[in-house]
Amino acid sequence: MDFTGVYHRTSEQMSYAQNENELVINLKTGYDVKQVFIHHGDPYDAGILGGNEVWHGKREEICFKKRLRHQLWWTTTLTPEYKRCKYYFELHTDGEVWYYLEDGFLTKEQLNMKGRILQFFIVPWMNPADVCRTPAWVNDTIWYQIFPDRFCNGTPELNTGDIRTWQSGPVRNEERYGGNLEGIRKKLPYLKELGITGIYLNPIMEAESNHKYDTKDYTKIDPDFGRLVQEAHEQGIKVMADAVFNHCGRRFAPWVDVLEKGEASPYADWFMVQKWPIPDKQADTRDGRFYSFAFADWMPKLNTNNEEVITYFCKICEDWIRDYDIDGIRFDVGNEVSHRFLKRIREHLHRIKPDIYLLGEIWHDAGPWLQGDEYDSVMNYPLMSGIHEYFLDKSLDKSEFEYMINRCYTMYMQQNNNVMFNLLDSHDTERLMNRFHDLDIFYQQLAVLFTMPGSPCIYYGTEIAMEGGFDPDCRRCMPWEEVGTEENQNRIEAVRTLIRLRKQEKALRSLYFHFPEEYPQRRCVEYIKIDSQGREIEVLLNCSEEKIKVKEGGEILFARNFSEGVLERNGTLVRRKKTSIWNTEDMENGA
Ligand code: ARE
C-alpha cells in the first residue's frame, strides 16, 4: 500500500459533526486502495486494550468515494448513539490489508498483539455548541452582485459637476457615473423578474473613491439604504453589504488623528505603524512607515488585534443590522484580519441576528476560517478558476473536470459547501464573457454555476453577457438602453431559465452529485445531481470538437446546440432523468 497517500485526522473537514446527530468521516487514500471498512463504536464500549478486550464496535464498508487527481476521498456518515465515537479503518489493496489508527498503520497481527496499547481515532463528544451551522436560506438564494457607481443612476437630475454622463464604453477608475441606491431601488422589479433573491453590494459607506474600498466613515450610508433593504425584503430579496475592516481610507477620522498627533493619539494602536513619527509623504508603504493594504498608503491597515478596534467594528456591524436590517456581510480581504476579531464579530452578530450570513473574501483554501466560529463561507474563486482552466485548456479530459469539482467540494464541511458563494466573475476579475467571447461556452459555464452545491452569484450585466476586461474594465456602466433589444432579451431569457430551474429543482441545489461514465468522448462532461428523494438531473456539456449522440430519455430542462438527439460542439443539455438508481439512505450517507 502507498502509505504516503493515506490521510485522516479527527479535525478539519475529515471528521466533524454535520448536525447534532450525524458525524461525517472522510479518508484520503491512494488509488491502490480498493476497499475500505470503518470499525466504529462508543469509546466506553468498544476498545481493545492490551489485546485483552473485545472490540464491540461495528464493521461497515465505506461505499462512497470521490476521485481526486492523485487520491481517493472516501466518505461516510455515522450516527453515534451516545454522541461519542471511537473508530479505525481497514484498508484493502490488491493482496494487502492494513489497519489505520491514530497510531498509524498496523497489520492484523499487530492490531491483535497481546499487551499492545492502541490509540484509535476518537470523537470524544459531539457538543451541539460546536457544530458548524450555516444559514439555511443561503442555499436557496440567487445572488446578483452590484458595483453601485455603475449599475443605475436613479437621480440623474441631481448630478453634480463631477458626475459623468452614463455611457456604455470603457471606464476609468477615477471616473464617477452617479450610480446610487435609488437606482438600485428602481431596478428591484427588474431583478425580481430575473429571479434574483439576493443582492451583494460593493461598499456603500462614505469614502473617497468610486469603489469605496477606502472608507472614510463607516457610519455614513445614504439614509435611503434602509428603504432599499425594506423594499428588497418585500420583494423576497436579501441584501448583503461589503465590509472593509482590514484597512480604512486615509480620511477615516482615527487615522487623521494619528497623522496629526502621532504616538500620542488615542488611536495610535488602532493601526499598524512601524515608524514614529510617521514621515509626511505620499508613497507606497514598502518603505516601512506603516502597514497598509497591498502597499497602498491611502489604505492604512487596521489593527484588528486591538480590543478597541474589535469593539468598534462589532458595533458598526450591529448598527448595520439594527438600522438597515441587512442579511449578510462580505468581509473584504477576509484573510488578513485577525481570527480573534472574526470570532468575536460572529458571536456578537449571532446574538442579534442568528441567521446572518458571514462571507469571507478569500481566494484560496480557507479551512482555518471555516471551522464554524468565523465565516459561513467564502467567495469560491477556486471553482471559478477551475472551470475557466478546463474550458481554456483543451488538453484536459473530462476526468480533470471531475477532479477539480471534487477538490472544491472536499475542502470544507458540507455545511459550508451548502452555502459556498459561487461566482464566475466579479469586480476584481475580467468578465465571464470576456474570457472566450463565445456565447455557447458562456452558457455552458453558467449551467455549471447554477447546478453546483452552494449559492450562485452573477455579476451585474451577466444576464446580457456584458463584456469587460480586468479592473476597471469590468466595472462599465450597465447599458440600460441596450437591455431591451431582441438579442439581449433572449440572453436574459436564458439566464432566467437557469435561475428558474435552480429554484424549482431541489437536485440542482443539493450537495450530492456523481460523475457517471456513459460517454466515451474525452471532453464530454457529464454529471448527475441528486436530491434527497433520489431524483436525478443530468448535466451534459460537449466541450469537444465532435458531435455527441446523446442517449434517449429524460425531460429536457435547458438546452443549447442540441437537436434530434445530437449535442453539437459547445452544447449544453440539462435533463431530468426518468429512473433513479439511488435511494435516500445512500444519499444521506454522502453519495
Ligand atoms: C486599484 C486599481 C488597480 C491597481 C491598484 C494598485 O484599480 O488596477 O493595481 O489600485 O494599488 C480596491 C479597488 C481596486 C483598487 C484597490 C487598491 O476595488 O480597484 O485597485 O482597492 O486601491 C488580493 C486580495 C483581495 C483583494 C484583491 C484585489 O487578497 O482581498 O487582491 N480584493 C479586495 C476587493 C477589491 C479591493 C480591495 C480588496 C481593497 O475585492 O476590489 O480593491 O479594499 C490572486 C491572489 C489573491 C488576490 C487576487 C487578485 O489570486 O490569490 O489574494 O486578491 O489574485 O489580485
UniProtKB/TrEMBL annotation:
<dbReference type="InterPro" id="IPR045857">
    <property type="entry name" value="O16G_dom_2"/>
</dbReference>
<dbReference type="Pfam" id="PF00128">
    <property type="entry name" value="Alpha-amylase"/>
</dbReference>
<keyword id="KW-0326">Glycosidase</keyword>
<keyword id="KW-0378">Hydrolase</keyword>
<protein>
    <submittedName>
        <fullName>Glycosidase</fullName>
    </submittedName>
</protein>
<dbReference type="GO" id="GO:0004553">
    <property type="term" value="F:hydrolase activity, hydrolyzing O-glycosyl compounds"/>
</dbReference>
<feature type="domain" description="Glycosyl hydrolase family 13 catalytic">
    <location>
        <begin position="145"/>
        <end position="502"/>
    </location>
</feature>
<dbReference type="GO" id="GO:0005975">
    <property type="term" value="P:carbohydrate metabolic process"/>
</dbReference>
<dbReference type="InterPro" id="IPR017853">
    <property type="entry name" value="GH"/>
</dbReference>
<dbReference type="InterPro" id="IPR013783">
    <property type="entry name" value="Ig-like_fold"/>
</dbReference>
<dbReference type="InterPro" id="IPR006047">
    <property type="entry name" value="GH13_cat_dom"/>
</dbReference>
<dbReference type="Pfam" id="PF02903">
    <property type="entry name" value="Alpha-amylase_N"/>
</dbReference>
<dbReference type="InterPro" id="IPR014756">
    <property type="entry name" value="Ig_E-set"/>
</dbReference>
<dbReference type="InterPro" id="IPR004185">
    <property type="entry name" value="Glyco_hydro_13_lg-like_dom"/>
</dbReference>
<comment type="similarity">
    <text>Belongs to the glycosyl hydrolase 13 family.</text>
</comment>
